Amino acid sequence: MPRRVQYVNLPYDEDERQGSYINYEVEASELAGDDIGHTEWWIDAVPPDNPTQPPNVDQKYLSRAQRARVRNGQVRNRRERFRNRVYLPHVGGDVYKIMCNQRGERGNDDLEVDEVITYRKLFYTVHLMNDACETEFNAVKDQMEAAVDEGYVELENVTTDRTRVDEAHTRSTNALTHLYNRRPRLSDRPFHLRVVILNDIYERKTRNFNAAGISGASHTYTPTTSGGEVFHLQNNGIVWVRARINGTGPWRDVTRYATQNTDVSVTVRLTGDDSHARTRRAIADGGTVNLRFRLKVRDSYNGHSIGNFVCVRIRDDTGATRNRNGVLKTLVHEVGHGCQQAVRRERLYNANGIATGRETNALWHTDNRGGRGNHCSHNCTLVNVGSRQEYRANAGSVPCVMIFYGVNTVVDGKFCPTCLPRVRRANMNSANMRRRSWHRY
Ligand SMILES: [Zn+2]
Ligand SMILES: [Zn+2]
Q1: pTM as predicted
Q2: Which domain holds residue 190?
Q3: Average model confidence (pLDDT) for the chain?
Q4: Ligand 2 centre distance from Cα of residue 416 (Å)
């Protein structure tokens, strides 16, 4: 009996092998014995073919209703046919044999009705901003699909399209609808992911910066993060500039003497006829000034996900192409959020399938510990970075794809041994996907 794939998360469709249950019909002639009045039915869990495959999901993660079961343990003969239904768990990668025999003859010429491996399927449409985005996406597409497939989630690429505009830097909004105008409409919602591959994406931030002890004809200021990374300014990025002479006295507005040169710096004229008169005189007398800037900067990031929308950038904020492993990691990471990672805790059930408590994921973390959203600290240590904390990869080890950001991390775009089984156990049925807003975009 060949093993057949059943996509347990999708709505029931007999021909497409979709749905959380399967209807069976066995003819009396398929069974050993004559004049069979009753059959009995059962399910055998099939052990892995080889040691690299995991066994079926531990029953402790499944309620009674979620476990594999036959609707009727015994079925009567109706016109020489026996009809039954088998319910499958929502998990991926479980293998079952559906078995049938004449009542009382179990173990003796059993009929193997079917052999099923449970799987989940998600569809995706990808919008590529330009040829470079297409090249970078195609370079990692197979690895992205393979990483998710390890959790028994098949990604099916339904449509590939261009975005409506090509822009160097895209300002962040939830689902970036200006890039595709909700076209094409996504089929098979809430199981269809919209992926946008773009150049660069940023949030608008307005921040204050300081420079002290300045003298000379002019001062050119480059805003940087506390970690030393350069901020890029938005168009018309100067809100105001103020100066204070010799570190005392009132702050005076010198905005009109400042210009934005490149997208990374602002120059303030300090001496000369086109500078602020008091500042000019103070510097001529050997003084210094302190400057304070309020600037609108681009705070670029690698990508985000919300409901069934994911975006990933291929360039950093200087325009240089990102490392492909980085692009891969961001893609799998954001799709991983769509697959409900990282999980904070899961329900546990006793042998009878009655809820007994919850299992807590010790690796789970959120922004109170260096990272926004649901992330994983596998192979990482929490370190102080400026005024905040973040998880950094331990030397020589590879963190989980669900790590938050990770400046210095080696990445291979894979789920860690804690997250991968949880991808496998994630319930991706319609109600759960809708709860996670997968019907939205
Ligand atoms: Zn994340
Ligand atoms: Zn993990």
Answers
A1: 0.88
A2: 121-202+301-338
A3: 92
A4: 4
